[in-house]
């Protein structure tokens, strides 16, 4: 008994839904990679579902479990109006680790997707600032991949630039404000 | 304290007429010794707190354990105003250059306490992201074990620094600088005729 969420998604996406698992009240939907963006948009926009809140985006490396494809990107959604939770999973192959970004659906996925990129090397197509978020700029490889040696470190001598995320116009605005304060 | 012993012996030698009692409000000593005594009793710590050790540091400087008893209660949050850096917590590789920069901004003489196992050796973070001991980037004078160390442990570390200063022992930083100068100094060449 997967409930109305699964029925709604099955009806709308049909064959693009690969698997629906409902264990202990946790609903998981496996979806094809090409349809994941559309499905997420539907999850947020559909009146019946209205998953307004994307709680987390993460990934799994199935290397040791012999998974095919190797990676899976996982979205955790929560609906504030219906109180339902949904886990959306999509398989990502090792040779082409790219998924469409969800930043245009939920703004909050910006940093989650950067974290997934940093840790697993899965790129998000269309992301406004696809770069590392946790590891430093001289880090090489992706630490949460199962074939990454657990204690392999990369030295860095220069601190990361923390201001580069501010857009040029925003920076100009801040400068102006500081200058006004100084001249007062 | 070692100062009074030294003062007494110097006094005895300097007094010409042993029958004349020297004024009690005056003593003579070496300037260096006097300065070291003052320094050891007025350490100004700079906390570089990144994890739970910083919480233990807070309880050390608070009223119950009261680091003020050791003259080290003036906690500064500017490296330019402090001479004892207490690195309390896990330092990740990304933070290494920041730690080094802050350390370099401190005026000499300066000392460093590595508080807890994470700062000392990486602790249980034997992983891709954690520095395996802050001595990879800055010289450390005293390592305090514990996860986190008890306030008594940190007080003991501060006392060790005080002892070091009173003895006139150079800090780890000074030793490293001296070694560098030694290595860079031009060597006298012996030319055989």
In short:
The complex is a heterodimer of chains A (184) and B (193). Chain A is of the alpha/beta class and 184 residues long. Helices cover 27% and strands 24% of the residues of chain A.
Can you walk me through this structure?
The complex is a heterodimer of chains A (184) and B (193). In chain A, 27% of the residues lie in helices and 24% in strands. Chain A is of the alpha/beta class. Chain B is an alpha/beta fold and 193 residues long. In chain B, 40% of the residues lie in helices and 9% in strands. Chain B has a four-stranded parallel β-sheet. The longest helix of chain B is centred in the C-terminal third of the chain and has 17 residues, at 151-167. The chains are: A alpha/beta (184), B alpha/beta (193). The interface between A and B is medium-sized, with 18 and 11 residues.
Please give the order of strands in the largest beta sheet of chain B: 1-2-3-4
Q: Roughly how many Å is the radius of gyration of chain A?
A: 20 Å
Proportion of strand residues of chain B: 5-15%
What is the ordering of alpha helices and beta strands of chain B? Answer: HHEHEHEHEHH
Query: What is the first-to-last residue Cα distance of chain A?
Result: 67 Å
Helical content of chain A stands at: 25-40%
Structural class of chain B: alpha/beta
The proportion of residues in beta strands of chain A is 15-25%
Q: Indicate the overall shape of chain B.
A: flat
List the strand order in the largest sheet of chain A: 1-2-5-4-3
Number of strands of chain B: 4
The major sheet of chain A is characterized as: 5 strands, mixed
H/E element sequence of chain A: HEEHEEEEHEH
Helix content of chain B: 40-55%
Question: Which overall shape of chain A is indicated by the principal axes computed on the Cα atoms?
Answer: flat
Distance between the termini of chain B: 57 Å
Output mean pLDDT of chain A.
90
**Helix count, DSSP H or I runs of 4 or more residues of chain A:** 4
User: The biggest beta sheet of chain B, please?
Assistant: 4 strands, parallel
Instruction: Say how many strands of chain A there are.
Output: 7
- Uncertain regions of chain B: pLDDT < 50 for 5+ in a row? none
